């Protein structure tokens, strides 16, 4: 297995690791909650905006250009999940204007910056003291994006079954999913405040 393949697999497995990466999975699901199968292009752009954000800070932190308190980041990650989920609950279905979509992409990019700092500790631990890490960073980020696309595909399939085939309302699906995610995020935030 090449070095690129190794880091690609590490990135993919890191995002799909529901035992240790559940906070990132929850964030991706919170981003997805507003969308259905027919919205897949918009959702793909949204997930890519998140990937761009976390790729930037992942690179900057891994290269020791940026350093942020890891305990703060561990609290901010569930906070981003909570904010995204709660905003889904109050967002109207009809609000699909260009400005609204651009704000969504901006939030995903900004919150991706925070999540990238969380990924960086993991990546630093496996990179060790390697001098040239550009290939590893690229492969790891592509693996993360691939893993996120798998999560999105599973989500869209579930949404298709529940909303389109079973006839449940899109609004109810969004509210139930977002409420559950917000509740889990609150518990995660509480756990990070009271070590």
UniProtKB/TrEMBL annotation:
Residue ranges the record marks as coiled coil: none
Keywords: Membrane, Transmembrane, Transmembrane helix
Sequence intervals crossing the membrane: 20-37, 44-66, 72-91, 103-122, 142-163, 175-194
Superkingdom, taxonomy of origin: Bacteria
Protein name as annotated: HupE/UreJ family protein
């Amino acid at each position: 297995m090449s070095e690129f393949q190794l880091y690609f697999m590490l990135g993919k497995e890191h995002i799909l690791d529901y035992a240790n990466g559940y906070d990132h999975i929850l964030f991706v699901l919170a981003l997805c909650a507003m969308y259905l199968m027919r919205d897949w292009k918009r959702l793909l752009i949204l997930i890519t905006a998140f990937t761009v954000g976390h790729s930037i800070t992942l690179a900057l932190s891994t290269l020791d250009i940026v350093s942020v308190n890891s305990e703060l980041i561990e609290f901010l990650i569930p906070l981003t999940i909570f904010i995204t989920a709660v905003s889904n609950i109050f967002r109207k279905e009809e609000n699909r204007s260009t400005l609204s979509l651009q704000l969504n992409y901006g939030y995903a990019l900004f919150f991706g910056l925070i999540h990238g700092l969380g990924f960086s500790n993991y990546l630093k631990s496996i990179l060790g003291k390697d001098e040239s890490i550009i290939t590893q960073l690229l492969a790891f980020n592509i693996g993360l994006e691939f893993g996120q696309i798998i999560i999105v595909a599973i989500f869209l399939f579930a949404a298709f079954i529940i909303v389109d085939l079973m006839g449940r309302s899109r609004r109810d699906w969004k509210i139930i999913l977002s409420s559950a995610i917000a509740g889990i995020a609150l518990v995660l935030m509480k756990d990070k405040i009271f070590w």
